[in-house]
Design a protein that fits this description.
Largest sheet: none
GO molecular function, one term: pectinesterase inhibitor activity
Mean pLDDT: 87
CATH superfamily: Invertase/pectin methylesterase inhibitor family protein
Shape: globular
CATH class: Mainly Alpha
InterPro entries: Invertase/methylesterase_inhib (IPR035513), Pectinesterase_inhib_dom (IPR006501), PME_Inhibitor (IPR051955)
Family: Belongs to the PMEI family.
Organism: Arabis nemorensis
Oligomer: single chain
Structural class: mainly alpha
Radius of gyration: 24 Å
Distance between the termini: 65 Å
Number of helices: 7
Protein name: Pectinesterase inhibitor domain-containing protein
Length: about 200
C-alpha cells in the first residue's frame, strides 16, 4: 500500500511539474507575441526605435490591442511632458540667464503646461473608445483626440521656437532642447498610433 501511495505521489508531482512547464511556455509565447505586436506597430511611427523602447515594457498590458497601444503611448508622452515642464521651469534660475532667455523659458513653461493639458484631454477621451467600435460618436471622440494631440505637438514646437537665433545659443538652449525634442518625438509617435487605431475602423 505504501508503494502505491509513493507512486501516486510521484505521478502527481510529475503532472504538476509538466503542467507548470506548459503554462510557462504559453505565457512566454504570449508575452513574445505581445512584444512583437508593439514592435510591428511602432514601425509605422516617425521614431520607431524610441517608440519600441518606450512601449515594449507595457506589452503584457497592451496585449495586441491598438487602442490600448495608442492610450499607453499618450500616457508615456504626457508623463514625459510633465517632467519636461518641471525641468524647464527650474531653468528660470539658470546661472547667467539673460532677460531674453528668461522670457523664452517662461513662455516654454506655459507651452508645456498646455501640452500636458491637451494630452490629458486626449487620454481621457481615448479611454471612452472601444476596440471595434464605430459610429458618429466614435469618430467625434476620435477627432477630438487627434486635434488635441496635434495641438500638443504644436505647443512643443512653439516652445523651442522661442529659443531661435544665435543670440540664444548656448548650454541653456541645448539642455532645454534635449527635453523638448524627446517630448515631441513621443507625441509624434502617439499621434501615429492613434491614426493607425483609427485606420482599423
Amino acid at each position: 500500500m505504501a508503494k502505491c501511495l509513493d507512486l501516486s505521489f510521484i505521478f502527481f508531482v510529475l503532472y504538476v511539474f509538466t503542467a507548470a512547464i506548459a503554462m510557462a511556455r504559453n505565457l512566454e509565447e504570449e508575452s513574445s507575441g505581445d512584444t512583437e505586436f508593439v514592435k510591428a506597430s511602432c514601425e509605422i511611427t516617425t521614431y520607431p526605435d524610441i517608440c519600441f523602447r518606450s512601449l515594449s515594457s507595457y506589452a503584457s498590458e497592451i496585449k495586441k490591442r491598438p487602442r490600448q497601444l495608442a492610450e499607453t503611448a499618450l500616457a508615456v508622452s504626457m508623463a514625459r511632458a510633465k517632467t519636461a515642464k518641471t525641468y524647464v521651469s527650474e531653468m528660470a534660475d539658470y546661472n547667467g540667464i539673460t532677460k531674453r532667455q528668461h522670457g523664452a523659458v517662461l513662455d516654454c513653461v506655459e507651452e508645456m503646461g498646455d501640452t500636458v493639458d491637451r494630452l490629458s484631454k486626449s487620454l481621457k477621451e481615448l479611454k471612452h473608445l472601444e476596440e471595434g467600435e464605430s459610429g458618429q460618436d466614435f469618430w467625434f471622440c476620435l477627432s477630438n483626440v487627434r486635434t488635441w494631440t496635434s495641438a500638443a505637438l504644436t505647443d512643443e514646437t512653439t516652445c523651442f521656437d522661442g529659443f531661435g537665433g544665435k543670440a540664444m545659443d548656448g548650454e541653456l538652449k541645448t539642455l532645454i532642447r534635449a527635453h523638448i525634442v524627446r517630448v515631441a518625438q513621443e507625441t509624434s509617435n502617439a499621434l501615429a498610433l492613434i491614426n493607425d487605431f483609427a485606420s482599423k475602423h
